[in-house]
């Protein structure tokens, strides 16, 4: 096993985000388990409305690391900007996002493949730049924030979102107790690069931080079958061959070794709103 954190290992990005169905399975299992915490796209929309000086006259909204485009579509519907552009490194996810957008004709949203370290937009072009749950894939997150600074229009806002370092630690405990990976609780957090404890500092290198909000999100998985849908795609663990990526086999193993009962786990979600240094560029 290499020492590289799986979320920072370029070789594992393809595996993690190479198929839209894989990300959808993981996200859907997590969202079905959610018992508290506001929907993140709604919270971002609320922060934009509260902190942008002209929230009803927005031009370009950039959604970095947009994945399957869920947030980009929500921003286009809720904020009514001139255009939303979702950018992601994974071609399969961009293709999937485009197909979703086609089912909503007339919505001013488009998707492009690209790297958030080199934003394919002119300087000063974007009223809003969102980076939700993606900066922790960068070994150089300050470089991404510097690019966000370059992309922001005068009066523009950046909204950045990440998770706490010890998010889902109850899953680590269960994986260790089940003997699936005895060292599950010792692995480095997947969010080591950008997490609730350092997001504001990372952003403050280039931008003025206006708001920092922390919100605890809780999740209760019904039992082994539900949990395995999420765990099977978690790159944090060293699972036995045949279990990684195979929710059915993982659930069967869990049923053999532990009583089937609900698992409650938590994640701290942190939002930072920032603007270009000095308020106006
Ligand atoms: C966990 S998903 C987050 C999706 C979405 N923002 C959300 O809130 O649900 C992380 C996304 O970041 C993307 N990503 C990782 N590294 C990237 C990079 N260098 N440039 C652009 N996107 C990247 C991945 O392809 C993946 O779709």
Automatic annotation (TrEMBL):
<dbReference type="Pfam" id="PF13649">
    <property type="entry name" value="Methyltransf_25"/>
</dbReference>
<keyword id="KW-0808">Transferase</keyword>
<keyword id="KW-0489">Methyltransferase</keyword>
<feature type="domain" description="Methyltransferase">
    <location>
        <begin position="61"/>
        <end position="156"/>
    </location>
</feature>
<dbReference type="GO" id="GO:0017000">
    <property type="term" value="P:antibiotic biosynthetic process"/>
</dbReference>
<dbReference type="GO" id="GO:0008168">
    <property type="term" value="F:methyltransferase activity"/>
</dbReference>
<dbReference type="InterPro" id="IPR041698">
    <property type="entry name" value="Methyltransf_25"/>
</dbReference>
<protein>
    <submittedName>
        <fullName>Class I SAM-dependent methyltransferase</fullName>
    </submittedName>
</protein>
<dbReference type="InterPro" id="IPR029063">
    <property type="entry name" value="SAM-dependent_MTases_sf"/>
</dbReference>
<dbReference type="GO" id="GO:0032259">
    <property type="term" value="P:methylation"/>
</dbReference>
